[in-house]
Amino acid sequence: MTGRKVVVLTGAGISAESGVPTxxxxxxxxxxxxxxxxxxxxxxEHQPSVVQGFYDARRAALAHVEPxxxxxxxxxxxxxxxxxxxxxxxxxxxLHERAGSTRVVHMHGELLSALCVGCRRxxxxxxxxxxxxxxxxxxxxxxxxxxxxxxxxxxxxxRIIEALHRCxxxxxxxxxxxxxxxxxxxxxxxxxGAHTLELNLLxxxxxxxxxxxxLGPAGVLVPAWVSEWLDGAR
Length: 234
Ligand code: APR
Description:
alpha/beta, Rossmann fold, SIR2/SIRT2 'Small Domain', 9 helices, 33% helix, binds adenosine-5-diphosphoribose
């Protein structure tokens, strides 16, 4: 159904079937690390080589994963809806883009980007950062992963909030609803009068806030929902 504005929020669960580990599903550890040991500005200050090594490994691992049917279905949805769809992802992988999506906001940053601590500019980055390469913009050797760590402000919040205020449908896919501000987006969508739908393997922490919740793997649920939406079922 076109002409209606859709905001899709994605989390680690949409990339799980591609082989990218989620954060909170197994033992609370994130690839063997506690989040606060690698995903805070303090960790970077005290143990820069551990943090750089962790993100270098995750960046390199992107070469071994592919988009799954859920990413591909969202790209199909964008083909039909154009600017009426915005995908807001908490994920730092590039699987939405590789599936063909272009209207994607990476609110928690991107592995394939480096942020210069010196000039604060962002540069596309595919290699390692552990060996202190110079910033392509200012030349200083102070590049860090372009990841929004705990305690930092997510990217593009103005654009996201505006889209939430104008949306007719909000769909949350593969996120535990444990991390704000993303966990609060459903409430903004409800306030805007949007229909709200959750597609997740297990009920998220904010599951009760959604009008509708479908449980199962994203690789099955998302293509089915996209087909249904495009057929005008909702
Ligand atoms: N299909 C659908 N959902 C799935 C699948 C799957 N195949 N596998 C797991 N899930 C669901 C889980 O049930 C869980 O609710 O995905 C969710 C993953 O939750 P988290 O690991 O907490 O990931 P996410 O919500 O993206 O984390 C948010 O926390 O650490 C920070 O910045 C990091 O962006 C991340 C944020």
